[in-house]
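Same chain as my last thread, 167 residues:
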Amino acid sequence: MQQMEDQAVPTATGSAASTQGEPHDWPMDKPPTGHNRRPWLFSAKGYLEVLFTDSDEARRAQRGLQERGVPAADMRLYVAEEILRNEAHFLAGRSWLAKLVDAVTADHQARRRYLANAQAGGAALWLYAPTQHDANRLLRILTDYHVAYIRHDSDDEGVRELTFHAS
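reply #2:
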C-alpha cells in the first residue's frame, strides 16, 4: 500500500472522475444475457474493487468516503447476499458460448476470491476510478478502514492488486 501511496498526487475534494450525473456501468450489474451483455465484454476497467470481510466495515468505509467528498454515485456497495444472488443469476443465464469464453478468458482467481469473500459474509465496495490518480486518492482514504483486498484496473497502469492480512 505504501508503494501506491508514494505515487499519489493530492487532488481536489470530490471525484474529478465523476461523470456529472451520468449513471455508471457497474461491472457486477451487467445482465448475463441479452444485447447489453456478451461474454467477452466483462471489464472492471476504471473501477477500484475493495473487499471487506465485514459488511459493517464496508458500510462505514462508504460513509467515510462520502464524508471525504466522494460522490455517492461513484460508489456501489454489494453485501454478501447480493453478490451470491447475482452470481446465481449470472450462472443461470449463460449460454454455452459464454461458458466457453469464460473458461478461456476469465480471471478465475479473482472470481474465486470475490465469491469466497461473499460466502464468508464479506462485502465488496466498487468505486469509480478511471485513472491511477483517482485510485490513489481513494486509497489514501481507505487506509482508515479494515480492507481485505483491493484491485484496480485502469488504462494508464493496467491491473494492480493488494492483499491485506489481519494482524
